[in-house]
Design a protein that fits this description.
heterodimer, A: about 120 residues, two-stranded antiparallel ribbon, 5 helices, elongated, B: six-stranded mixed β-sheet, 11 helices
């Protein structure tokens, strides 16, 4: 865990990443709070808080006596959420750094286009 | 919340030294507590009072609802692992583990055997011939395998290397997950244990100055850095825990910031970074950073 953000937020993001990346399929069981705690070496209460964030968001749901499962449609919801945050998390910092370097938004657009063309060519 | 420890206006004086000075707090059941503070802050005295090994000068202590002093029904539910536990002359670790179940009704011999092999502890060597780290391992094994409902570890790992400390943290967490109990861990290695803790008590000059959920405490401070003039104007009306300056750049540690504060800081070109539990405590207990042992 990095010191950057609250640990329970990082746990929630890690689980989201795994759902997003297809490692945790919808309607499959996720590891228990205690398994998360021992794996990441954190207090089980903290791990539980991370899991509860996702339960509140409807990404995970509880089957009584069995455990936590990935909700149907959760991957789509995560994609939706990440798209909403894309501008604030990626575009704004990019623009602010470009501004400091004297790169105008239109020059930046050119750089992005050229860079993605080079990446395409390499595939 | 069930309280396993309730302390009210507790004081302990040695002559005119106030080792514990009018403290009140509770300890909730089945949480891992960090009892943190500088040397001579009163950590050990407090644990000795809670385990009935010292008499209070004034105030009351209830452990599992009763006074711990000379009280077998309380004491059999406690385990106190001290930094410098003494053992009878000619004792070997094997004797310690054989006699442990007499004192600890929840003793798990199988778990103890696994820990002995994890720590590669020579059980048939005389205790006085053990290295400092091996001696600490004896205490750690007793503390874990006793599964006492209330376990105190007072600087349990003097001389334990980084690998052995990691084994301790891993086993503690695994076993705590399976057998929840209340653990009070006193240590200088705050960064190492920070993520294991659910609640933090900080004692300074005999007084409890922080009694807070660990996650909340971690979020309670932020370091602001950037141009000195911008930093100065941002922190002007705030309580500043720490401040430093290099040329035109400055950093300042301040309390909790609202989302609006964060936006304002971003707009002013300031960088925000979190403060580790260790940094926070060093800053609050207000003294030179080198006084706190850095984690190896």
């Amino acid at each position: 865990m990095d010191e950057g953000r609250p640990i329970f937020v990082q746990i929630a993001e890690q689980i989201e990443d795994d759902i997003f990346g297809g490692i945790l399929a919808e309607e499959t069981q996720v590891p228990s709070t205690n398994e998360f705690a021992t794996f990441y070496r954190i207090n089980p209460a903290t791990a539980g808080k991370g899991v509860n964030v996702l339960v509140d968001d409807g990404i995970l749901y509880k089957k009584r006596g069995i455990g936590m499962f990935v909700a149907t449609g959760s991957r789509k919801r995560i994609v939706q959420k990440r798209r909403e945050h894309f501008e604030a998390e990626y575009v704004q910092p990019l623009l602010s750094e470009a501004h400091k370097l004297g790169i105008s938004p239109s020059q930046l657009a050119t750089i992005i286009t050229e860079s993605s063309m080079r990446e395409e060519a390499q595939k | 919340m069930t309280a396993v420890v309730e302390v009210t206006n507790l004081s302990k004086r040695f002559g005119n030294v106030h080792a514990v000075d009018d403290v009140s707090f509770t300890v909730a059941e089945n949480k891992i507590y960090g009892l943190l503070g500088r040397n001579a802050a009163g950590k050990t005295t407090l644990m000795q009072l809670l385990t009935g090994q010292e008499f209070a000068t004034s105030g009351t202590i209830k452990v599992f609802g009763q006074s711990p002093v000379e009280n077998a029904s309380v004491l059999e539910r406690l385990c106190f692992i001290k930094e410098s536990q003494r053992y009878p002359e000619n004792f070997k670790p094997r004797h310690v583990f054989t006699t442990a179940p007499w004192f600890f009704p929840h003793w798990d011999a199988e778990f103890a055997a696994r820990l002995i092999s994890d720590f590669k502890l020579p059980v048939n060597r005389k205790i006085k011939k053990l290295s400092r780290g091996q001696l600490s391992a004896v205490g750690v094994i007793v503390g874990l395998a006793s599964r006492a409902p209330l376990t105190f570890f007072d600087e349990p790992y003097l001389g334990l290397d980084a690998v052995a400390r990691q084994i301790f943290y891993d086993r503690l967490l695994e076993d705590y997950a399976k057998h929840p109990r209340t653990v009070i861990l006193s240590t200088h290695l705050i960064d190492e244990v920070s993520e294991l803790l659910e609640h933090v008590l900080v004692i300074d000059e005999g007084q409890i100055i922080i009694d807070q959920d660990a996650d909340e405490l971690r979020e309670s401070a932020t370091t602001v850095s950037g141009m000195a003039t911008s930093v100065d104007s941002f922190v002007r009306d705030r309580q500043v825990l720490h401040r430093s300056r290099i040329g035109g750049l400055a950093t300042a540690t301040v309390g909790r910031l609202s989302p609006e504060d964060r936006t304002a800081a971003g707009a002013a070109g300031l960088e925000l970074s979190p403060v580790s539990l260790q940094q926070l405590i060093v800053r609050i207990t207000g003294s030179a950073e080198q006084e706190v042992e850095q984690s190896a």
